[in-house]
Amino acid sequence: MPPADGSRAGPGSILLGVDVNGALLVAGTTSDAGKSAVVAGICRWLVRRGVSVAPFKAQNMSNNSIVTPDGGEIGRAQAMQAHACGIAPSVDLNPVLLKPGSDRTSQVVVRGKADGQVSALSYRTRTAALADVVAASLTDLRSRYDVVVCEGAGSPAEINLRATDLANMGLAQRADLPVIVVGDIDRGGVLAHLYGTVAVLDPADQARIAGFVINKFRGDPRLLEPGLDQLRALTGRPTFGVLPWADGLWLDAEDSLSAVADGILGRPAAPRGEQWLRVAVVRFPRISNATDAEALACEPGVAVRYVTEPSRILDADVVVLPGSKATVSDLAWLRAQGLADAITAHAAAGKPVLGICGGYQMLGRRIRDPHGVEAAPGTEVDGLGLLGLEIAFDADKHLGTPTGNAWGAPVTGYEIHHGRVVAGPGTPLLDDPGEGTDAGCVLGSHWHGLAENDAFRRLLLTRLAAHAGRDGFAVADDTSFAYERTRQLDLLGDLVEQHTDTAALEQVIRDGAPRDLPVLASGMAVSRA
């Protein structure tokens, strides 16, 4: 097995009897094709083989992020993949993170630190310098691990972006990486997607596509085999595996909302007591770290639903206001949708409301933006007034991985926010260092990840159920969020091991894409200019 930190113990592990320093890029036909899950599954499978492995995503676009032990901010999917590898997350795993604050602008996070705002067009002027940052991080990882499994971004078929690409074929060319392409068959048209992805690339990029993986298959594989045979005949490339649909996978998704079926998060287990606890999580347009709700959804008898309309608030026992990348505009959206009035009425009836980070800030009396972090400098807006808070946005982002105690239970969490409590914090939710507010049925904190602490989560659910009048709800005493996460990572490893040609994957990781792959004629006319 690799050493405790996951790095290389000696000169390299043995794959197919050969000493290697291998790498692979997992691209996708579309966003949410399953790249993150396939990377995690490959990492988990390799780690169980005794290989030291690290994940890597050159450029991510997501408002789901975490703070690493080295003090930086990266995409949460890369933290999940690090868990699959048995290593600590670090900024090298995701050197460039884009956090959308609107449809046109994003905050740029470079090696864990915020580095300005960009539009889609202005970002192109920064990619040359960022390519050097990406290359340095990947080179460092490859010097320390036997294998680095890279994840693409969006689709490599976005040929209009090829000239400034950091994460797909641009990365593959610069770092000499073989590529496999993942397609989601549940969306329909997967064979056309896979063929077309190769066909629109220029010959040099096509030469790096070693084969395909099909994701989320339901039904009899024998019905798919003729299509895979024809795909190989058309492209000269094999399909390395067909991964079946797995109901049990929903934690730590790149886009948490993609894991939602009919609004319900996860697959809720039957209650231990006589009643369910119904939790409504407001789905802000710029929701961030929505994964905070996942720990609640792991509990038996807790049904967590994302909501965007007032009627869902009226049906809920508990309302959660999660994080937001655009607190001021999402607060305005809350009012425009009628959700603010519904939440206020919910609290007035003595039913619990929980705010996390941006949602916590919305619960206060006032939000001030003196530095123009989210709006025009000097902007002030009224909050919901359910807590006595006044919030001011600092120019610099607060990042941290604090520890403390809440209601007598030890807790850890992470902080990612510009807003700071400047007045009226009220009774602290956390004993040490005293962050957060406990006002009975309304409470909140800037800390993400609080509900992942098992002892505190049980106390929290007991409190919430009591305020909601759910006397028949019984909290489980044996649910472990860490165990549930590990179980899902093992399931991903099982899917790769049992449903892919692992010997062929090993060969691609070790030797790269075959040199005799055919070029599809339609790709000949594509230019990178």
UniProtKB/TrEMBL annotation:
<dbReference type="InterPro" id="IPR027417">
    <property type="entry name" value="P-loop_NTPase"/>
</dbReference>
<feature type="active site" description="Nucleophile">
    <location>
        <position position="357"/>
    </location>
</feature>
<keyword id="KW-0315">Glutamine amidotransferase</keyword>
<protein>
    <recommendedName>
        <fullName>Cobyric acid synthase</fullName>
    </recommendedName>
</protein>
<feature type="domain" description="CobB/CobQ-like glutamine amidotransferase">
    <location>
        <begin position="278"/>
        <end position="455"/>
    </location>
</feature>
<dbReference type="InterPro" id="IPR029062">
    <property type="entry name" value="Class_I_gatase-like"/>
</dbReference>
<dbReference type="InterPro" id="IPR002586">
    <property type="entry name" value="CobQ/CobB/MinD/ParA_Nub-bd_dom"/>
</dbReference>
<dbReference type="GO" id="GO:0003824">
    <property type="term" value="F:catalytic activity"/>
</dbReference>
<comment type="pathway">
    <text>Cofactor biosynthesis; adenosylcobalamin biosynthesis.</text>
</comment>
<keyword id="KW-0169">Cobalamin biosynthesis</keyword>
<feature type="domain" description="CobQ/CobB/MinD/ParA nucleotide binding">
    <location>
        <begin position="25"/>
        <end position="249"/>
    </location>
</feature>
<comment type="function">
    <text>Catalyzes amidations at positions B, D, E, and G on adenosylcobyrinic A,C-diamide. NH(2) groups are provided by glutamine, and one molecule of ATP is hydrogenolyzed for each amidation.</text>
</comment>
<dbReference type="GO" id="GO:0009236">
    <property type="term" value="P:cobalamin biosynthetic process"/>
</dbReference>
<dbReference type="InterPro" id="IPR011698">
    <property type="entry name" value="GATase_3"/>
</dbReference>
<dbReference type="InterPro" id="IPR047045">
    <property type="entry name" value="CobQ_N"/>
</dbReference>
<dbReference type="GO" id="GO:0015420">
    <property type="term" value="F:ABC-type vitamin B12 transporter activity"/>
</dbReference>
<dbReference type="InterPro" id="IPR004459">
    <property type="entry name" value="CobQ_synth"/>
</dbReference>
<comment type="similarity">
    <text>Belongs to the CobB/CobQ family. CobQ subfamily.</text>
</comment>
<feature type="active site">
    <location>
        <position position="448"/>
    </location>
</feature>
<dbReference type="Pfam" id="PF07685">
    <property type="entry name" value="GATase_3"/>
</dbReference>
<dbReference type="InterPro" id="IPR033949">
    <property type="entry name" value="CobQ_GATase1"/>
</dbReference>
<dbReference type="Pfam" id="PF01656">
    <property type="entry name" value="CbiA"/>
</dbReference>
